[in-house]
Amino acid sequence: MSRSVRATVFSLALIVVSAIAGGALGPKTAAADTREVHLKRYSEILAAIESQYVEPVDASKPVAASIREMLRTLDPHSNFFELSEFSKLQERQKGSYFGLGITIVSIDGQITVVSPFESSPAHRLGIRAGDIIVGIESENARGMDIDAVVKRLRGPKGSQIRIRLEREGYAQPLEFTVVRDEIPLHSVPYAFMVSKDVGYIRLVDFNETTACRPGEPAGCERELERALRTLKEKGATSYVLDLRDNPGGLLDMAFGVSNLFLKKGQMVVYTKGRFKRDESSYITEGESPWAQVPLVVMTSRHSASASEIVAGAIQDHDRGLIVGERTFGKGLVQTIWPLRSVRGYALSLTTARYYTPSGRSIQREYGGDTALEDYQAPKERSACESEGADPRLTDAGRRVFGGDGIAPDTCSEPPKPGPLVARLQSGQAFVNFARRFESAEVAAATSVAGAGSKAAVGNDKVRPIGQDFKVTPEIVREFAEYLKAEKIVVDAAEFEKNREEVEAEILEETMRQIFGEGAARQRLYTEDPQLRKAIESIPMARLLLKDPQRFISETATKRAAR
């Protein structure tokens, strides 16, 4: 199997858009213009900006913006990475970095914790979303540039750093001494049993931690293999693989994941480009103990790229069922070139298209009158069950289509909150109310082995709770009082009418804020209608695996009876 030595990446990149006001800069370029002529014209314009603009200009900003605009004329996924962006991309691909394990953002000049990574030193010590960093060692962090904060928080594994945090409900800052550690960017953040014989695995990324590559030594085990084995030990004989909102990642990892579930010698994906070097076929190379287990793959409209490679291979080989929404529709391959002239910068350029085993491209249309924002977040998509262009056949003869993502075998839309809950969500009411609680276990500990320590600060305004937390009538009354205190107007009759949904949202957000996403999902998975549909689909996934023709016949009969 031929592969490019360059780093080929499948990812749904966020492209920074910069517009130039005032229309075209001069007459149209003749087709005969050489590269030298283009560069001379560009240099003249840049020189004029530097020497004549009304204010001094940092040339790096218009240069970077113009490069991105140039790439945007090609396709939505080619991109230019500056130093910090390329560093973040490399961290994501590697799957780890050294630090405290928190995501931060600057809000009105305040460095605010968005969330801690589960099992990180910060998470184990009880640092939580909404905390404001006001001090780092002896420095005042108020108004500090966020890049400077990130630089100070990171450091060698095992080194310590003192930080001070302001937290709602506490009269004085909380002081933590955190031991830096390697922070894994988990591709499988959690996995658990959803019935006595069905295991659920959440896969959020395709990076170096995801799965073993074909050809690695026997006994190799990364996050996905470990999750499969652990669930099997708990009784799992069937699996739900959740790829919802997974934007993609490394092609090798999409190949590795597919290799776990397909038979030896089956095509996963192939690529075609302008040059022979960009043509590759990825064919499974080994026998896998997971190739014969019933499988359901969950997708959403934000599942893209590497997620679509896996879903497409599973679907084309009739290996399992796809449940959820039509996927994003990204079928372009980007190759990353670090720039030799400027260390730390890189070009991500589309060099090929990829095709599923049946030969379909799932790339959505782009260009023309389609704005980049509309491409990234389309307001309208083809109906989930509608037939698309370029019909193809799976191994068993089922019809599938290209040109607009992967259409699921069973469509299931995510739940939409009612008007009241949606309004309260947008105002962060549930998030802010959840800050009135904290983990009883974390609150009781002033030091955590390997993570650090914190000063003991008592507070009767923040209530310790356990993972058996329940939303009682008293808590609902407290929430109503909180809304009144925050001057969030809610009609009493409307509140009572939507009480059940409000209670469910209080429970979910409190569990998520205090105990993490994994604990919240495991506690509340029965409230997820898409996951329920996936679990219900396991018997049909088992039939598809055992007798594809009977599956096709029974499916056709059910559709005819509708």
Account of the 3D structure:
The protein is α+β, with helices and mostly antiparallel strands and 562 residues long. It folds into three domains: 89-184, Pdz3 Domain (Roll); 190-341 and 350-366 and 383-411, 2-enoyl-CoA Hydratase, Chain A, domain 1 (Alpha-Beta Complex); 419-530, no CATH class. Helix content is 33%, strand content 22%. The protein is built from 19 helices and 27 strands. The strands form six sheets. Strands 4, 5, 6, 7, 8, 9, 25 and 26 form an eight-stranded antiparallel sheet that branches. It is globular and about 65 Å long. Mean pLDDT is 88; it is low at 1-31.
Please outline the major beta sheet: 8 strands, antiparallel
Q: In CATH terms, what is the fold-level topology of the largest domain?
A: 2-enoyl-CoA Hydratase, Chain A, domain 1
Unreliable residue runs? 1-31
Mean pLDDT: 88
Strand percentage, roughly?
15-25%
Name the overall outline. Answer: globular
CATH class value of the largest domain: Alpha Beta
Radius of gyration: 26 Å
Q: Any chance you could write out the topology, listing elements then pairs?
A:
Elements (H helix, E strand, L loop, with lengths): L6 E5 L23 H18 L7 H13 L6 E3 L1 H12 L1 E4 L2 E6 L2 E7 L4 H5 L6 E5 L2 E2 L5 H8 L6 E7 L7 E6 L1 E4 L5 E4 L4 E5 L20 H11 L4 E5 L5 E3 H11 L5 E7 L6 E4 L11 E5 L6 H11 L4 E4 L7 E7 L7 E10 L16 H5 L12 E5 L5 E4 L7 E2 L7 H8 L2 H6 L2 E3 H5 L2 E2 L3 E3 L8 E3 L7 H13 L6 H6 L1 H17 L1 H8 L4 H8 L1 H9 L1 H13 L2
Parallel strand pairs: 12-13, 13-17, 17-18, 18-23, 24-27
Antiparallel strand pairs: 1-14, 1-19, 2-20, 3-10, 4-5, 5-6, 6-7, 6-8, 8-9, 9-26, 11-12, 15-16, 15-20, 19-20, 21-22, 25-26
